[in-house]
Design goal:
Strand order of the largest sheet: 1-2-9-4-7
CATH superfamily: Jelly Rolls
Helix content: under 10%
Number of helices: 0
Largest sheet: 5 strands, antiparallel
CATH architecture: Sandwich
CATH class: Mainly Beta
Structural class: mainly beta
Strand content: over 45%
Number of domains: 1
Radius of gyration: 13 Å
Low-confidence stretches: none
């Protein structure tokens, strides 16, 4: 079986972000996230590992111990329990895929 999901057809995330749920199973969720120029996701902690793949735009990933620029083609892994935040520092939308590794809870 082939299942196609597009950003336009995917359900919206249940919080105030421009995020679409592209895939959701008990062990993995994939979110397509768009951050507007200057938009900030405040530092927070999740109880699962997260992988971020940056598609478009430039910005900053902040953890408790570091601040790292992100750019298209870059991937970042953040372990469960580690504080993280994102800021779009560019003049255009930043787009990324968030892989929530829920089995790492």
């Amino acid at each position: 079986m082939l299942k196609i999901t597009t950003v336009e057809s995917a359900p919206k995330v249940p919080f105030q972000l421009d995020g679409k749920i592209m895939y959701s199973k008990p062990d993995l969720e994939i979110i397509h996230l768009t951050l507007k120029p200057g938009e900030i996701i405040a530092k927070h902690i999740n109880d699962f590992d997260v992988i971020m793949y940056f598609i478009q735009g430039e910005g900053l990933i902040e953890t408790k111990s570091s601040s790292t620029a992100f750019f298209p083609g870059m991937m970042a892994e953040i372990k469960s329990g580690e504080e993280r935040g994102l800021t779009n520092k560019g003049l255009t939308d930043a787009k990324l895929l968030i892989l929530k590794l829920l089995q790492s809870k």
